[in-house]
Write a structure and sequence with these properties.
This protein has 466 residues and is mainly alpha-helical. It is built from 20 helices and twelve strands. The structure holds glutamic acid (GLU).
């Protein structure tokens, strides 16, 4: 069997979006799962709309998702000679002709056709003129006017198109720049692409591309068109549904593992499994398991997956991922060990790194603020004795861990005849400022004796003054 070669050919007219990332992932996975190669190609022939900045944004996103490519990035604008050479071949074999119709003439004839109820396609005015290359001329592909072209799609099954419906499409513009449908075919032929996997918004382009392959006597690749991604309201995913660019998800505190896992399930399934490591995906991915109907992107699912991957990581790994988020806040510069300890206590509940960075505040600042309502409710006069007692007992402790802290709390409660449960919330408010936090002894161990005593004293002061 010939080796599989897939490609991802983004147009650099913006950042990498969820849909594009899924296409890249499917191509990457298919190549990896078949021991093949994955090529990155930048389709920058739309010179007006393509920018360096978008190229960089796309490459950054691919790197963040760890979708490494084996070849490229190739740039179409560096390959203009190649397209010209193939255009010449098509002209020489009679499959293409030069056309001198101006934009205004075309417009007029299109309008006339529509007014008469005819299809507004190119009317073939220059087909038989036998023109040569010249200024303001475009090269058009001579599409056969009869017969049908069948796209045998791996995902969608066979789709038949009437050739008479297809235009004599422009393949080279008057400035010598190739159009998408032509450049893509020449690239896919010359790069030896065996499988073209892309969004099904390209289905209607495919018969035109197939005709160009045939005219050049080239072998067709396999085509697989992946259904669109929809939002929860079942309309195609767009800005209206929230963030669409991959890097926005990074900023929102998602892990690449979670986004990849979410992306792969947009269209592909393996029984009712939801969680896949990269290696499992490479082992299990097949195009046969890509569904025929649009898939729905939900934030809820992504959050669930992200929480899963956050739990799975070692706290030490999360330290570096959290540092940029800590740097955006007024946090102190804490050691890796301290942060890892704090992270371990927050891992079970965080859905995103942003959520974790926020929840981490009480570990990362010197001065915590009491939430007013929590302070009024829990830092009450009856806690005065409890706090004094805890402060003196805790000051005596040598080890400051769950095993040594627990008896101090138990004994204090017994001696002062208050329920242990009554003590926990006031202490939590004193240590964290609020009423929600990981387990009390866990956070005390991370904060350390000095900070705990300092904060209890501040709590006591509040009690005494209010
Ligand atoms: N540059 C095209 C796009 O971004 C590529 C389409 C294709 O895969 O052929 O939509």
């Amino acid at each position: 069997m010939e080796p599989v070669i897939t490609r991802f050919p983004p147009s650099p007219t913006g950042s990498l979006h969820i849909g594009g990332a899924r296409t890249a992932l499917f191509n990457w996975l298919f190549a990896r799962s078949r021991g093949g190669r994955f090529i990155l190609r930048i389709e920058d022939t739309d010179v007006e709309r393509s920018t360096e900045e978008s190229v960089k944004a796309i490459l950054d996103a691919m790197e963040w998702l760890e979708l490494g490519w084996d070849e490229g990035p190739y740039y179409q604008t560096h390959r203009l000679e190649v397209y010209r050479e193939y255009a010449r071949k098509l002209f020489d074999s009679g499959h293409a002709y030069w056309c001198e119709c101006s934009a205004e003439q075309l417009e007029m004839r299109r309008n006339a056709a529509m007014a008469e109820g005819r299809k507004p396609k190119y009317d073939g005015a220059c087909r038989t003129k036998g023109l040569g290359e010249g200024p303001n001329r475009v090269l058009r592909f001579r599409t056969s006017e009869t017969g049908t072209t069948v796209l045998k799609d791996i995902i969608k099954g066979p789709i038949e198109f009437d050739n008479s419906e297809l235009d004599d499409l422009v393949i080279l513009k008057s400035d010598g720049i190739p159009t998408y449908n032509f450049a893509v075919v020449i690239d896919d032929i010359t790069m030896g692409i065996t499988h073209v996997i892309r969004g099904d918004d390209h289905v209607n382009n495919t018969p035109r591309q197939i005709l160009i392959y045939r005219a050049l006597g080239a072998k067709l690749p396999e085509f697989g068109h992946v259904p669109m991604i929809h939002g929860e309201d079942r309309s195609p995913l767009s800005k209206r549904h929230g963030a669409t660019s991959v890097m926005e998800y990074k900023k929102m505190g998602f892990l690449p593992e979670a986004l990849l896992n979410c992306l792969v399930r947009l269209g592909w399934s393996h029984g009712d499994e939801e969680i896949f490591s990269r290696d499992e995906l490479i082992e299990k991915f097949t195009l046969e398991n890509v569904g025929k109907s649009p898939s729905i992107f939900t934030m809820e699912k992504l959050l669930w997956l992200n929480a899963h991957y956050i739990k799975e990581k070692r706290p030490e790994e999360l330290v570096n991922l959290l540092r940029p988020f800590a740097a955006q806040r007024d946090y102190l510069d804490k050691s890796d060990t301290f942060m890892a300890g704090a992270i371990r206590t927050l891992q079970p509940r965080a859905h995103t790194l942003v959520e974790m960075a926020d929840a981490m505040r009480f570990y990362m600042v010197d001065e915590i603020q009491f939430e007013p309502e929590a302070a009024v409710k829990f830092l009450t006069a009856e806690m005065r004795e409890v706090f004094s007692r805890l402060i003196s007992e805790l000051s005596e402790l040598e080890a400051f861990d769950e095993a040594s802290l627990e008896p101090v709390f138990r004994n204090t409660a017994e001696d002062l005849k208050v329920k242990l449960g009554k003590i926990a919330q006031p202490v939590r408010v004193a240590l964290t400022g609020g009423t929600k936090s990981p387990g009390l002894f866990e956070i005390m161990e991370v904060l350390g004796k000095e900070t705990v005593i300092e904060r209890l004293k501040k709590g006591l002061k509040y009690i005494e003054e209010n």
